[in-house]
Each structure stands twice: as C-alpha cells, then as structure tokens.
Amino acid sequence: MPILVILSRWIHVICACLMIGGIFFARFVMPSGLGILDDETRTKVHLKIRRTFKMVIHSAILLLLITGIYNSTLAWDKYTLDSALLHPLWGTHILLALIAFTFLLIVLAGPVPPRSHRKLMAVNFVVLLAAVAVASTLKWARERVVAEHAAHVSSSEGP
Amino acid sequence: MDYFYHLMIFLLARYVHILCATVLVGGTLFYEMIVPPAIDELKVEQQLLIFARARWLFKWVVWLSAALIVLSGFVSTYAHWREYNRDRVYEIQVANQPTEPMELAPMARPGWWWAAHASCGLLAVVISLSLTIGKVPPSQPIRWMRLNLVILMLVMFLATVTRQTRLEAQSPNPPAKTLEPLEIGR
User: Fold this and answer.
1) Quick one: closest CA in B to A41, which residue?
2) Is B65 within 8 Å of B20 (Cβ atoms)?
3) pLDDT for the residue numbered B1
4) Residue A158 with chain B: CB contacts under 8 Å
5) Which of A79, A108, B10, B133 is the most exposed place for a label (fewest CB within 10 A)?
6) Which secondary-structure segment (H or E) carries A124?
7) Are A32 and B53 in contact (CB under 8 A)?
8) Do A22 and A100 form a contact (C-beta atoms < 8 A)?
9) A24 CB near a chain B CB, below 8 Å?
10) A93/A158 Cα distance (integer angstroms)
C-alpha cells in the first residue's frame, strides 16, 4: 500500500479542515462568545486568539502547498488523459486556493488586523468552500476518466 | 437525465460530507486548543460564560453537521457499495480474457477500511453530540474534545485509506506513467 500517497492526502485534507473549520469558528461562532466582554478585554482576547490562529494557518498553508504539489505530481499523468475536462478543474482549484491563502496572509499580517478583516474572512470562507467543491469534482472526474481509459485500453487490446 | 440526477446527488453528498467534517474538525480544534489559552487571564466566571455562549452556537452547527454527515455518508456508501463488497475475489480483464479470480489481501479490502471509517466516524459523531446535549457540558469537556479530535483525525485517515484501497481494487493493474491520452471524440 503506498503509504506516502495516503499520508500526503491525509495531511492535505486535515490542513484544509483546520483552515476552513477554524475560519468558520473564528468568524461566525467566536464573536458571539466574546460579546459579553467590554471592548478593551474583547480586543485583547481577539488579538491573543489571532496570534495562535496565525501559527495554525501558516503551518497549514505550508503543508497544503507541499502536499498539494506532491499530490499533483502523482496525478499529473492522469490529468493529461482528458486535459479539456481536468485541467480547468485543477487550475480553478489552485487559483481559488491561492486567492484564499493571499487573503489569509493579508488578514493575519502585522500585530493588528486590517479594518476590513471581518469582511475578508467571510469572503475567504466562501472562496475556500468553492475550492473544496472544485477539488471534489476534480477527484470524481479524474477517477471517471481513468476508469474509462482502462476500459478503452482493455477493449482495444482484444484478440 | 436519471444519470445526471444521480451524478449531482453523489457529487453533492461528497461535497456536503467533506464540508461537515471540515466544520467539525476545525471547530473542535479551535474550541479546545485556541480559545482556552486566549481567555486564561480572564475571571473564571467570564471564561465559563464565553464557553457557554460559544457552545450554544456551536451546538447547532454540530447537530446540523452530524445529521448531514450521516446522511451524505449513506449516499456515498450506496454509490460505492459494490466496490466495498469486492473483498473476496475480483476479476481482471486482460486482453478481453477473464483471468482467474484473485483474493484480495485483508489489508487491501476496501470494505474493511470502510467499516472502520464508518464505525469510528459514528463514535466521533456520538461524542460530539453528547458534548453539546443539555444546558451544562459534561465533566472534563476539554479532555473529551481532545479525544474526539484524535478520533476525527483517525476517521479521516481511515477515509483516505478506504479511498486508496477502493481505487486499487478497481484497477489491479493501474495505468502507469506511459498513459496515452484517449483518442475518442471528446
């Protein structure tokens, strides 16, 4: 069993989960929890949460890039089987992921968040959901193309 | 048209399954690893109040995710059921000549990995639900959440292995790097 393939995919999925779930919690759940605090304390707690979250996100981005490149390298020959279908899906997934990473790096840069950080986080959440949807479709399409190709090769090698 | 609807349902189920897992795993990590150190300087009453409010809101997310993850899991299982049952024998078509049925090694049977994934997943869902049931959390909620996070990561590992074994069982002689693009009218 190709353990490296499994590990790489597992780490990729876990990092995506930590990123998307963390953004969801930070943007939509936590503000309600911190609502009981006065402004000064709330800002202080928010900055502490942001500092820890930044470490998680930066590590996740690094691991997503490494495992993403590795996974793409492994599947690249399959993408060439039907490039008209698979390349746009792969490209869209990469583009959306890079947009999301850029947003995150902007929002988490510096000691204090930018003014529009709430809006940016919400937009980022939607972008990441779209990236997952495209990745999911890409995986399905790749499996289908490989299965069709195997059937095609099998029938063309007939006696 | 039926094929299109089936396709949409399976794709949607897969997407929803991943999305709900994402919210559960990421939310659990945030709740039990990022929030506690950030509020440790506050008074105990304030800490409890913050946890209670976040828990109340997170509860609905957990319940909705749990329901959707089980439902979408059923749909995805239905879609792959034949492949999960391919645990004893399968046939390879080489040059249109059926070869002898071969028995899959125990570790290469996708059905077993699927069973492990589904049972651990159900356990994680049950723990998540039990942590959010009632007005007061159970004793030592952070420990339970930490345990649940480990189980959730294990569940995801099992899902990855299930997928890998399913693909390998489908294609015992997987196309290697010499694949040529299909020349059928696409």
Assistant:
1) B42
2) yes
3) 59
4) 95-96
5) B133
6) helix A117-156
7) yes
8) no
9) yes
10) 38
Task: Tell me how close the Cα of A73 comes to any Cα of chain B, in angstroms.
Answer: 11
pTM: 0.83
Residue from B3, B4, B18 to probe the interface with A (highest A Cβ count within 10 Å) = B18
Cα separation, B152 vs B122, in Å, equals: 10
- Sign of the C-alpha dihedral, residues A30, A124, B72, B24? negative
Please report, as a single letter, which amino acid is at residue B60: W
Q: If you search the block for the tokens 């399409």, which residue do you land on?
A: A141
Q: Which residues of chain B have a CB within 8 Å of the CB of A145?
A: 182
Alpha helices by DSSP H, B30-184: 35-38, 44-84, 110-132, 141-170
Instruction: Give the count of domains, chain A.
Output: 1
Burial class (CB in 10 A: 0-12, 13-18, 19+), B156: buried
Q: State the count of interchain CB pairs (< 8 A) between A and B.
A: 169
Alpha-carbon distance A137 to B15, whole Å? Answer: 8
Domain with A74 in it: 3-156
A21 and B95: CB-CB below 8 Å?
no
Interface predicted TM-score of the whole assembly (ipTM), two decimals = 0.82
Whether A21 contacts B27, CB under 8 Å: yes
Cα gap A148→A151, rounded to integer Å = 5
Angle at A61 between CA B18 and CA B149, to 5 degrees: 50
CA angle B35, B41, B45 (to 5 degrees): 80
B182/A157 CB distance under 8 A? no
Instruction: State both tokens at B172.
Output: 């015992």
User: Of A79-83, B28-32, B98-102, B171-175, which range is least confident?
Assistant: B171-175
User: Quick one: average pLDDT of B53-81?
Assistant: 90
Strand partners, B89: B103
